[in-house]
Each structure stands twice: as C-alpha cells, then as structure tokens.
Amino acid sequence: MPLGCLIRTPLLFLLVVGLFFLIWSLATGNQLTNPFSSRPPDFNNWSIDPGFTEIDPSNGQVWKIRYESRAYSTFSGLVRHTSPINEDLFAMLSHDILITSGDFADAGMVRTSVSNHRFVWYASGTERPAGRINLLHTLPVSMEIYDQLQQVRKGQSVTISGWEIQDIQLIENGRTITTWKDSGCNSLLVDAVVIEP
Fold first, then answer.
1. What is d(CA 54, CA 46) in angstroms, rounded to the nearest whole number?
2. What does the pLDDT read at residue 143?
3. What is the pLDDT of residue 40?
4. pLDDT in tens, 100-117
5. Is 183 exposed, middle or buried (0-12, 13-18, 19+ CB in 10 A)?
6. Is 72 exposed, middle or buried (0-12, 13-18, 19+ CB in 10 A)?
7. Is 118 in a helix, a strand, or coil?
8. How distant, in Å, are the alpha carbons of 97, 163, 170, 188 from that of 69?
C-alpha cells in the first residue's frame, strides 16, 4: 500500500528517490551522483599572476593569496572523505579531502567526520593514534589538476602535493571584505595528484 501511494504521487516518489541518492552520495563521498558537486574554477576568465599570489576575476574584486612558506608539501594516505567546496566568496577552492595514514586510516580504530570544512576524529583507545590525519582544502593550479581532484574518491590511496596557503583575502576597492583561513587543516595550492591503483 505505501508503494501504491507513492506511485500515485509521482512528485513524492521522485522526491523520495532523490533524497535516497543524496544521502547515499554524501555518505559515500561519490561525487558522480552528488548534486552539490564542485564548480570548476574559471581559469579562462580569471587573471592569475605567475606566482599564484593574486587572482583577478574581473568583477572589481581580487583574491590575494599568502603562503605559509615556499616549502613544498606532500600528503599521502587513504582518503576517508571527499566533498566539493562551494564557497561563492572563494570560488577558486574546489575540494575538501581527508587524507589519513597509520591508525587514522583504520575505520575500526578511529572514526572520522567532516563538516563545514572542519574534521573531528574519535579513537576507541585511550592513547593518541599513530599516523597522520590532514583535511586538505584544495586550490588547483589548472583545469587538469581540477579534473584529477574530481576523480578522488573515499577509500582510494592518494598523494596530493603543493604549497600550503596561510590565508586568502577577498579585496574590493582596496578593502578586505573577508578572509579564508583554515584552523587545524591544510589549505593547499595543488599542482600534483596521484591516485594509486
């Protein structure tokens, strides 16, 4: 009988099916079915300086990027979460990717959760787990790198490399409107993505 009611109300049936796929895609990190998938950076229309310290989208605003250092950083391990970043004020950011190693890669030992560009972890033991856990906020250097980041899925082993960002300022008419600054995570200008077979 419940199925019969749903069939008689096609809009409600479509809503239930859509809700199921939304929950499934968010739970699995599968972006192919995720209606909130990332919008690609507009590299064709943005003016980017060679040092990747300023992006001018030609709308009267400018993004200024400061780096923690010019040291090159590499993050390798098991992906336990991936989701798009859809922040209109920081449209160059593309994905949140949680990369883990050691005990943090073992779902039986450590539970993880990512929400609103932050992560938390819960360990079953009393000692701090061994290994690393890093939530990357990615800024791809090109459409090729963006396309590679789009292929990253939960459960894959990956290596993602680039330069760590200290902050990104959105400037309009010489005034800072807002600033992107991570807390305990790693904002990263990404120039290399390797997905292990």
1. 10
2. 95
3. 87
4. 999 999 999 999 999 999
5. exposed
6. exposed
7. strand
8. 21, 8, 20, 12
